[in-house]
Amino acid sequence: MNRENKRKSFDKGYYKTHPCNETFICNVCGRTVVPNGAGSEHRNHCPYCLHSKHLDIEPGDRQADCGGAMEPIAVWVRKNGEWALVHRCRVCGALSSNRVAADDNPMKLMSIAMRPVSAPPFPLERIEEMTRMMGGDGVLKW
């Protein structure tokens, strides 16, 4: 083991201050993920299926013992307009937020962003009835 690999293994928080430029195979889709093209020095999820691996408790600390698949469940927009993915661990349920990478699959991102619109938490056929119940006239005006 060379000196740099030892530091990666034993220095707590190594990835907080050093780039994560390792190639890996996605545990979910099986594709090879290279660090080039992310637009950042910290590749933290697969650009094809957008899944990640539960490695950190705090970003870059590599202290999580779980190792479960982190499923992309939502996107949100930061103050500066940058998109970020919300991941939930399939094993322990932990949540984390990761910047969207430059080479992420745009169709996957849009399908995650549109989930609340395409599958609302109430039946769309009852929206007029629900509007009346809330004091509105129940008539949709287009």
Please tell me about this protein's structure:
The protein contains four helices and six strands. It has helices at residues 3-10, 14-17, 106-118, 127-133, and strands spanning 24-25, 32-33, 52-53, 69-77, 83-89, 95-99. It has a four-stranded antiparallel beta sheet with strand order 3-4-5-6, with helices on one face. The longest helix has 13 residues, at 106-118. This is RNHCP domain-containing protein. It holds the Pfam family RNHCP. InterPro entries: RNHCP.
Give the arrangement of secondary structure elements.
Layout: H1 3-10, H2 14-17, E1 24-25, E2 32-33, E3 52-53, E4 69-77, E5 83-89, E6 95-99, H3 106-118, H4 127-133
Antiparallel strand pairs: 1-2, 3-4, 4-5, 5-6
C-alpha geometry = elongated
Class from helix and strand fractions: alpha+beta
Query: How many structural units, i.e. domains?
Result: 1
Number of helices: 4
β-sheet strand percentage: 15-25%
Protein name: RNHCP domain-containing protein
InterPro entries: RNHCP
Organism: [Clostridium] aminophilum
Domain RNHCP: 21-110
Summarize the structure.
The protein has 142 residues and is of the alpha+beta class. Helices cover 23% and strands 19% of the residues.
Notable features of this structure?
two-stranded antiparallel ribbon, 23% helix, alpha+beta, 6 strands, 19% strand, single chain, 142 residues, RNHCP domain-containing protein, RNHCP
